[in-house]
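Task card 7
Instruction: Convert sequence to structure tokens.
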Amino acid sequence: MLMGITDSVMIGHIGKVPLAASAFAMSLFTIAFLVGIGVLMSVSVLAARAHGAGQPRDCSEYLRHGMILGVSLGTCGAILMLIAGTHLELFGQPDEVIAVVVPYFQIIGISMIPTLFFQVLRQFSEAVGHPWGPMGILLASVLLNVLLNWVLIYGHWGAPALGLEGAGWATLIARIAAVVGLWAWLRHRSEVRAEWPGFSGNTRWLAPLSRLHLREMLSIGVPAAAQLLFEAGAFALSALMMGWIGTTALAAHQIALSCAACAFMVPLGLSIATSVRIGRAVGEGRHESLRVIGFGSLGASVVFSLLFTLIFALAGPLIVSGFTHETEVLELAARLLIVAAIFQIFDGGQAIAAGALRGLADVKVPMMITFIAYWIFALPIGYFFGVRGIGPMGVWTGLACGLAFASILLTRRFYSKTSH
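Output:
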């Protein structure tokens, strides 16, 4: 997320059209990315359960099968984005946006492969109780991305000023470096050696795949991917709606969404931790701890969300001023942050509840809840109140309604699943 925000800040200083173009490109990239993330979430849930049950061989198998799934999904996503990059005019965006977006869009499409590769390694590392290494490597890749942005966007150190395309190359290089760094760190980490493929009786990396393991992973991953697809698709379509309204609306949407998404990383991190801890508790047979873990995480999320709500409500104009100098974009982005301040609590609540349910391997009903929340409530409300009504504020009001609906129903679902 920091990588995306630094891109938005540095791209925003070369104009609102490149900023709007990056918003459009990232809205489509995020759909494919989150589908991959959803399928691969089974790695953390099942590896944590195996780790808690003291089954290192199964833990290594989930990592090995996850790597195959990650590379396959990343390759398919990259190919689809390369093909889609030749037909972006079909999305009805402003002509000036389409004119500059194609190279950036295709480069970040290729970065899908190292991105999903990294996610498998990260989820495995977190599942076996070692989250600090991936975090440090990710922060280092963010710093590398900032440096490469400075060189390639603006043309420093003798490099050509590539503008938006330079941001794409910087992101791709930083993501590849992150994968190499995390692989090397895990490969030489003695604490995970017993659960690493090829060690002490564990199956080797290139052994034939197990249908049982693949079926188990996909039974969790596919509904989880659909759940994320419904949510990401709603946010991506909201970006398209902003493009229908105008370039200024789309640029402001990118700024406000970057800020809201940054704040969302706290409940998202808690959600991932909740999935891992509940999965491990199930593996250890500690069913009495499930509600304590789930509602403890929910309470922590509410506290953090209230903090960000106050920050967005009181310091919105100051925050968005760091992204661009375009006055009309700044004013609209600050207003959108007011809506973001309101839906922060619901956004965090639905993330925690969904994570808790994934830890229980309960994904099919949550999938239907998210479909109803975003596609039956959020998008129709956003379209009629936004595109055909009061403009950008209406689109974001629709998103807030969908998040509230999802938060209430998913929390209720977790409560009922842990009642016994």
